[in-house]
Write a structure and sequence with these properties.
Chain A: This is Gluconate 2-dehydrogenase gamma chain. Chain A: It holds the Pfam family Gluconate_2-dh3. The complex is a heterodimer of chains A (about 260) and B (about 600). Chain A is mainly α and about 260 residues long. Chain A has a domain at about 65-110 and about 130-215. Chain A has helices at about 10-20, 65-80, 95-105, 135-155, 165-175, 185-200, 215-220; one strand spanning about 40. Chain A is globular and about 65 Å long. Chain B has about 600 residues and is α/β, with parallel strands linked by helices. Chain B has one domain: FAD/NAD(P)-binding domain. Helix content of chain B is about 25%, strand content about 20%. Chain B has helices at about 15-30, 45, 55-60, 100-105, 115-120, 120-130, 145-160, 195-210, 255-260, 260-265, 315-325, 405, 420-430, 475-490, 560-580; strands at about 5, 10-15, 35, 75, 85, 170, 170-175, 215, 225, 230-235, 270-275, 275-280, 290-295, 300-310, 340-345, 350-355, 370-375, 395-400, 435-440, 450-455, 465-470, 495-500, 520, 545. In chain B, the strands form 6 sheets. In chain B, strands 1, 2, 3, 11, 12, 13, 14 and 24 form an 8-stranded mixed sheet that branches. The longest helix of chain B has 20 residues, at about 475-490. The radius of gyration of chain B is 23 Å and the shape is globular. Classes of the chains: A mainly alpha (about 260), B alpha/beta (about 600).
Chain lengths: ~260, ~600
């Protein structure tokens, strides 16, 4: 079945109908979100709902992590960003849930990465990640290795059951790449989980972390304000408006 | 089996800056033009709206607007003795995708290269002697001069609404502008952006040190503006979401903000989106292109015949398209023969990270190109005698974002990256971080080049482009010199921690560095040493023009887009006024 009309002056209505038909054909080579090849001419195309909105968190338990894994990830993000008088911990700010949703989505599944063989082991890190594991698989393999490492070295206790100071020691050792993790290195895993935790803590709350904009309040980032023309002439003064998310603020949307 | 479409006058591969500028010019000349773009349609109102755009995770980190390695990536090796490996995750550079191309996600720096940059080989030979350059350095003259390109720089700046302060108008130096720039026919269309605290501090300090600070030329509209096409831009709101993001205010120069509103309404223009050109087709003689073959999202292949083929993709993809299509002879580093893939170059960073104490910079108030610069150590603006290197960098303190995820990595040297100690200092480092950064040249070398990878393929089974690249001693010395200058300025600005950074021993593809890949299909006056002539016309197949930073014989100490836009407009002029009258080689080899 043809994906494209032949007539260069075909109307947009016809075009949409034909691409809708093409969408039924099944597997396609399209990029994001099932967008189809089309021809545009004679106008700037616009239709309601053409934009691809962000995909907000669906609050529904754990989507990717097993109960054991989720406890371990919560125990990690709680030490990477501890709760104190400056604000909530990474766990309380939703970082573990954020990571769970990221692993369940296209990022965790490496959908955007080049995953064709051959895979070369022991390549120099200067050439970037060469693992054939997706980020979600990296978590699965490394969390299992972390648990085994902790049980072997901390009296049979898994990471989530260690006291805070011991968890810090394990994380510090992983940061240096000291523990030998089977299947995926402790250092690349530490770097991955630290990066994902910071993403969760500072990304828009729409993705499940940065709860109540705690990360933004900590550093003084006003969020999706998008217009500082009134402020640029006095830019070193305190910025007094509270942060705002892509979803607005709780006070603007009663019931949230 | 490819199905054949009705013939067009012109087919354009890729609808970014160069494709849209050429399409506008050639449709004005009455030609039937179709652009084929492998990415999606995108526009300001639908894709970059202020309610959607300031999403750091989606655009800044997950790189939603960019080409995905799953679609196409590159392989890399440091030298010809290695097996190249694919770049599986985005890293050192991130490549645009979709309508608007890199013009959607750039910051807006709209530079002109220096007069000496265009005649680099003759200039360095004359000033320092022909033997002064390293034996394997392969720099070239461009085959044009700055003055040849000046009218097109001017045209691009007025189409794209550049904000800045001229330094040299018709040979008269202008106060507060860049005294090293080539003479321009008139000033910028818009005054400079406003400064923020760190950029103002840099300018004041640099001037006190005897340097010549000027506002960075910005493709961010400092005021409302109507361009020569009649398209209106809105004033920049200093939202801090330029690089990696679209612009929801019609303020950042882009094909969407400056060309497409007119182009899309023309009856003799059309664009096919989500359609990827597989190769350019040639006739039996091999000296004339007959059009292109592309594949749509259903997997159907189509042949689009055309009289003229314009290769307007990202520079590296231009080179790959030529290699996949057999346009020109591939470069062989052993013999030095062949031209396609020759003189690949990149961009080099010498810089100093700054951490102040007791400041409140409010870094979230920013704009893509907001910055103050000096050019005292760029190109050959300073005497290189005895320095052991050539080239240099524009040096800038910029204020282009305060994105929290990216900023969470800012910290004092040796400070922890996590835990209570990290948390205690992160709000302070957020408010106190800045940098003095060099955008440095990279010159071309005999052994650094592009060709097709023998192992790794894309999703259609075509070979990936293989990059053979590593840092050379010249650039290492140069960035150490620039980093030292940056650190001196940073100390004089009063920073508590100053951390000089230069390029490492070997090129590392992991951290983001620059998307300014250049060369591989370079312009010049000798068909043995260049792939295209001064009008970006293939020496071998006269109805193929290859437009982009792929034409740079080596890279200068600036961002490329101003020069890329000017080259596209110059090529458009040559096609309109010369080629159409008498299709054939515009320069006799």
């Amino acid at each position: 079945m043809a994906g494209l009309p032949n007539d260069p002056l075909i109307s947009r209505r016809t075009l949409l109908a034909s691409t809708a038909a093409a969408a039924l054909v099944g597997a396609t080579f399209g990029s994001a979100r099932g967008v189809k090849a089309r021809m545009l001419s004679g106008e700037v195309p616009w239709a309601p709902g053409m934009a691809t909105p962000p995909e907000p968190l669906v609050p529904n338990g754990w989507l990717y992590f097993t109960p054991e894994e989720s406890r371990a990830v919560e125990a990690i993000v709680e030490r990477l960003i501890p709760g104190d008088d400056l604000g909530p911990s990474g766990k309380d700010a939703g970082c573990a849930v954020f990571i769970d949703r990221q692993m369940a989505g296209p990022y965790g599944g490496a959908e955007r990465l080049y995953m064709r063989p051959p895979f070369v082991n022991n390549a120099s890190p200067l050439f970037g990640p060469q693992s054939q594991l997706t980020p979600a698989q990296q978590y699965r393999v490394a969390l299992k290795a972390l648990d085994a490492y902790c049980k072997a070295n901390h009296g049979g206790k898994g990471f989530a059951n260690l006291p805070g100071e011991d968890r810090d020691k394990v994380l510090a050792a992983m940061e240096k790449g000291e523990p030998n993790f089977e299947g995926f290195g402790s250092r690349p895993f530490f770097n991955l989980v630290l990066q994902n935790t910071m993403e969760g803590f500072f990304a828009d709350p729409i993705y499940g972390g940065n709860r109540d904009m705690a990360g933004w309040k900590l550093i003084g980032f006003p969020g999706a304000r998008y217009d500082y023309r009134d402020f640029i002439d006095t830019v070193t003064e305190p910025y007094t408006l509270p942060p705002v998310s892509l979803m607005g603020r709780a006070g603007w949307t009663p019931g949230r | 089996m490819a199905r054949r479409l009705p013939k067009k006058d012109v087919v354009i591969i890729g609808l970014g800056w160069t494709g849209s500028l050429l399409a506008h010019e050639l449709t004005d000349a009455g030609l039937e033009v179709v652009a084929i773009e492998r990415g999606p349609w995108r526009d300001t109102s639908t894709d970059f709206s202020p309610t959607q755009d300031p999403d750091e995770l989606r655009y800044g980190v997950r790189l939603d607007l960019f080409l995905r390695p799953a679609q196409e990536t590159f392989t890399l090796r440091h030298n010809t003795g290695q097996n190249a490996l694919p770049i599986r995750w985005p890293g050192a550079f991130i490549v645009g995708n979709g309508v608007g191309g890199a013009g959607v996600h750039w910051n807006g720096h709209t530079w002109r290269f220096l007069e000496s940059d265009f005649v680099l080989k003759s200039h360095l030979s004359q000033r320092y002697g022909a033997g002064a350059m390293p034996e394997d350095m392969q720099v070239e003259d461009w085959g044009i001069t700055y003055n040849d390109l000046e009218p097109y720089y001017d045209k691009f700046e007025y189409i794209s609404g550049t904000s800045g302060r001229a330094g040299n108008i018709k040979g008269q130096l202008q106060p507060g502008g860049n005294p090293f720039e080539g003479p321009r026919s008139r000033g910028y269309p818009l005054p400079p952006l406003k400064d923020t605290a760190p950029t103002a501090l840099f300018a004041k300090t640099a001037n006190e040190m005897g340097y010549h600070a000027f506002p960075r030329p910005a493709g961010n509209a400092s005021e409302a503006y109507v361009n020569p096409l009649g398209i209106a831009m809105g004033p920049c709101t200093y939202c801090g979401f330029c690089e990696r993001f679209g612009c929801g205010n019609y303020s950042k120069a882009s094909p969407q903000a400056n060309v497409l509103p007119v182009l899309m309404r023309k009856s003799n223009f059309s664009v096919r989106t989500e359609s990827e050109v597989l190769h350019i087709n040639k006739d039996a003689s091999g000296t004339r292109a007959t059009g292109v073959t592309f594949v749509d999202t259903s997997g159907q292949e189509w042949e689009q015949p055309a009289d003229i083929v314009l290769v307007c993709a990202y520079g590296l993809h231009n080179v790959r398209m030529m290699l996949l299509s057999g346009i020109g002879t591939p470069y062989d580093p052993k013999t030095g023969e062949g031209t396609v893939g020759r003189n690949y170059a990149y961009q080099s960073a010498g810089a100093a990270g700054l951490l102040f104490e007791g400041k409140r910079f409010n870094p979230f108030v920013g704009a893509g190109s907001l910055g103050q610069c000096i050019d005292d150590f760029n190109g050959d603006n300073f005497d290189h005698t005895g320095l052991g290197f050539f080239g240099g960098a524009s040096i800038t303190t910029s204020n282009y974002h305060g994105r929290p995820i990216a900023s969470s990595a800012n910290r004092a040297p040796g400070a922890p990256a996590w835990g209570s100690a990290w948390k205690k200092q992160v709000s302070s480092t957020y408010q106190n971080s800045s940098a003095v950064a060099g955008q440095g040249s990279v010159y071309s070398y005999r052994d650094k080049y592009l060709d097709l990878d023998p192992v790794y393929k894309d999703r259609y089974g075509r070979p990936l482009l293989r990059m053979t690249f590593d840092w050379h001693e010249n650039e290492k010395k140069m960035t150490r010199f620039i980093a030292q200058k940056c650190a001196e300025i940073g100390k004089a600005m009063g920073a508590k921690h100053v951390t000089p950074r230069s390029i490492p021993d070997h090129f590392n593809v992991v951290p983001y560095q620059s998307t300014h890949n250049t060369g591989g299909a370079i312009m010049g006056s000798d068909p043995k040493r260049s792939a295209v002539n001064r009008y970006l016309q293939s020496w071998d197949v006269h109805n193929v023009f290859v437009v982009g930073a792929s034409a740079f014989p080596q890279n200068a100490g600036y961002n490329p887009t101003g020069t890329v836009g000017a080259l596209a407009l110059m090529a458009a002029d040559a096609i309109r006024n010369e080629y159409l009258k008498n299709p054939g080689p515009l320069v006799q080899a």
